[in-house]
Amino acid sequence: MNENITTSRALLAFLKDSPTCFHAASSVRKILQENGYEELTEGKTWKLNEKGRYFIVRNESSVIAFRIPKQDFTGFMIGASHSDSPTFKIKANPEIVENGYVKLNVEKYGGMLLGQWYDRPLTAAGRVIVKENNCFVTKLVNIDRDLLMIPHLAIHMDRKANEQGAGSVQKDFLPVLGSEETKGMFMKIAAEEAGVKEEDIIGHDLFLCLREEGRIWGANQEYVSSGRLDDLQCGYADLEGFLQAEESDSVPVFAMFDNEEVGSLTKQGANSTFLEDVLRRICSLCGKDENGYREAAANSFMVSADNAHAVHPAHPEKADPVNRPKINKGIVLKHSANQKYTTDAVSAAVFRAICKEAGVPVQDFTNHSDVIGGSTLGNLSNSHVSLNTADIGLPQLAMHSCYETAGTADTGYLIQAMRKFYSLSFCDEGQGTFSVK
After folding, report:
1. Fewest CB atoms within 10 A around its CB: which of 1, 153, 412, 435?
2. How far, in Å, CA of 315 to CA of 18, rounded?
């Protein structure tokens, strides 16, 4: 079987197991444990051993994993991605009963392409919190059946439907749960899925999820489509590269943050102290003082991996005239004059050299100068830990749709590049000179 198809099928399996940020963190936890990594708890004492493998989960939605190659390591090689994707979050007291239907009250999470959510089988997933033995305990929820739908108004009742916007979230996008006789059933269903009593649920973070599974398609099976490719395609590839890498003089760090789609201003986001907390703790437990931490940070490098826009088949005018990434043509190095992306001449040169050594093609992305683009987690993370950072991604179409499209070859390219990246060390030699070996 074609290696690209094998890798893409593994990616789709990971995506199926990861319908929310909480499930993505759970999937990563399982993979790390299967590979001999020990879970550490932030609120308890750590003991780090040379050659040890460790990981930490914050909020059950963000994960940082690392290895200790030796006590006297030189720096950190960090690959960062994010676990969340745009969707609808289900509000507290969710049921609305009117006109013979039970609907769920929802709000937008992140910058969504709203119209894509109409007339698709949906379900709900996330977490509930219950109290057990005087502790607040997280239970994952993934209701594994077609449960909800958001029906579109018929064209006969809205003759301008094809000429106007997608509609009001509060009015048009409340998913139907069932007929009015099903009042009170939603939380019962969620409780049953979590294996708890409804009355024991004292908090929840639940989201709408697409039921349609991912697909590999195209004349040469060159495309892969699924929900949550942004950014779990990068997260999955980063993790595989991290696990496959050889040891160097640096500590390899896999980081997957939550809440990138809503600004990262949470205790588990890239704009939190999570990464800094872990790096400082590693340094302290390996015998480095404050100066040792700062030296290690200066001799570190981050790859911030968040998917990128491929040139669109119907709208090439939205792309830059020259820098127009194509699907299956390699990793995208993202540039922005206003520093929405952190890539600069140094980090671009370093990342290109690593990809060349790994045998991986690299493309460039810049926004069309008249079109405002998005941002990502690299510059937010740098507000807490200042690092040489390259912002990269994999080219995709329909970003922030509930069903996105990317290339079957590109996941493998990022795995190869990150495997090489994590096997190297970066060093600031001074006077604008840097080495990677």
Report:
1. 1
2. 31
Kindly report whether the peptide bond that precedes residue 231 is cis, defined as omega within 30 degrees of 0.
yes
3-state secondary structure of 359: coil
Whether 215 is covered by a domain: the verdict is no
CATH number for the domain harbouring residue 188:
2.30.250.10
The dihedral through the CA atoms of 4, 305, 60, 107 has a sign that is negative
Which amino acid is it at 17?
D
Instruction: List strand residue ranges (DSSP E) for 211-300, in order.
Output: 215-217, 223-226, 251-257
The encoded tokens of residue 119 equal 């007339």
3-class DSSP state of 156: helix
Q: Residue 139 and residue 148: Cα distance in Å, rounded?
A: 21
Nearest to 21 by CA among 362, 301, 262, 356: 262
Q: What is the pLDDT of residue 250?
A: 98
* Enclosing H/E stretch for 128: strand 122-132
Does the residue 435 lie in any domain?
Answer: no
Q: How far apart are CA 224 and CA 203, in angstroms?
A: 36
| Cross-strand pairs, 201 | 130
| Tally of CB atoms within 10 A around 53 | 15
Statement: residue 111 has pLDDT above 80 = yes
The answer to whether position 36 is within a domain reads yes
Residues 178 and 155 in one domain: yes
Beta bridge partners of 55: 39, 65
Same domain, 265 and 407: yes
Asked if 402 contacts 113 with a C-beta cutoff of 8 angstroms, the reply is yes
Taking alpha carbons only, the member of 84, 261, 88 closest to residue 173 is: 88
| Three-point CA angle 289, 295, 296, nearest 5° | 90
Question: Does 367 reside within a domain?
Answer: yes
**Using N-to-C axis directions, what is the helix angle for 410-422 and 3-16, rounded to 10°?**
90
Taking the complete model, does pTM exceed 0.85, yes or no? yes
In this structure, are 265 and 402 located in the same domain?
yes
Please give the tally of structural domains in the chain: 2
Structure confidence by residue, pLDDT tens digits, 165-221:
788 999 999 999 999 999 999 999 999 999 999 999 999 999 999 999 999 999 999
Q: Residue 38: CB partners within 8 Å, gap ≥ 6?
A: 52, 53, 54, 55
The pLDDT, as a whole number, for residue 4 is 96
